[in-house]
Amino acid sequence: MWYPLLRPLLFTLEAETAHRLTLHSLNALRRTGFCAGPALTTGNCAHSIMGIEFPNPVGLAAGLDKNGEFIDALAALGFGFLEIGTVTPRPQPGNPRPRMFRIPGARALVNRMGFNNCGVEQLVRNVQQAAYRGVLGINIGKNFDTPIERATDDYLHCLRKVYPLASYVTVNVSSPNTKDLRRLQETAELDNLLSVLKAEQRRLADAHGKYVPLALKVAPDLDEAQVGTMCECLVRHAIDAVIATNTTIARDGVAGMPNSTESGGLSGAPLARRATEIVRQFSRALGGGKPVIGVGGVMSGADAAEKIAAGASLVQLYTGLVYRGPTLIGECIETLCEHRNKSA
Fold it and tell me: Known catalytic residue: 195?
């Protein structure tokens, strides 16, 4: 495919510039008909979780298309579902650039984007203008200048705005790049946030005549006791799914490499083992009672299969796309479909 030829050129550019250029190029390719998804001959790959039918188990992780500007182009690559955002109530610029850094020797990225986005009103307009009618997750967060004590107000605002358009809504409490955000993973704060959002979900379901599931996106930097406590909270408030994991503040596997000391969250291959272990811990603690979506370090079909073996129902990609390009999507779909068909 074309991406291996372009990647050396893209890697000469600043990472965020290359990111935007790639997305705009995908848009152009889609308009000319050259952006087609993988042709699969592996049989039925559909998954049904959260009451949603996913045509295949491989999705786009949040963060790549924060504003929902490139939905149709990304959908054409063959994903079974897309997740856009993180979106906040008001537009915000995020942290100063540069704020995204490659570590090619480890197939990793460090980012400290800081929820840069155009605000929920613009995201809603973008979704409404898209032709895509597949499974769409919308990831919501809080503005950087909203006090943590009032974070619930921001999540409520976003939930109300995106509810009519989303297949599911992800509550992001795990980015390391918004000050104090991970405090919302602590028991009292999480209990309060999920209680309020669950009540609002019920109200919105009645108002719109449809139930839109809620998923919680968690950090990889948790110990087993924290995982257990969070699972109790998820069960208590009937949250529909867990997305494990976000980026890590650890630097295992990249020490001494260029850009490894940049502040922010680390993603890519060095995160794979830890993210898979968190998937396993959540799956075990939940006893299969809630689906887990695995994300973090999926760089190959084999990596995707490891997430599924650890208890994930679906997987999501981001950093792997930077290093492998769209070929990774088809490889992961084929691997997971083959495994499923063999075990059927």
Answer: no
In order of 29, 69, 78, 100, 324, the CA distances from 62 in angstroms are 22, 13, 16, 15, 18
Please identify which of the residues 175, 260, 267, 313 carries the catalytic annotation: 175
Q: What is the pLDDT of residues 128-151, one digit of tens each?
A: 999 999 999 999 999 999 999 999
Distance CA 248, CA 264 (A): 8
Q: Which residues contact 186 (CB under 8 A, 6 or more apart)?
A: none
149/309 Cα distance (integer angstroms): 38
Express each pLDDT in 60-118 by its tens digit.
999 999 999 999 999 999 999 999 999 999 999 999 999 999 999 999 999 999 999 99
Please count the helices (runs of H) and the strands (runs of E) in the chain: 11, 13
> What is d(CA 25, CA 30) in angstroms, rounded to the nearest whole number?
9
Domains and CATH numbers, the chain: 3-337 (3.20.20.70)
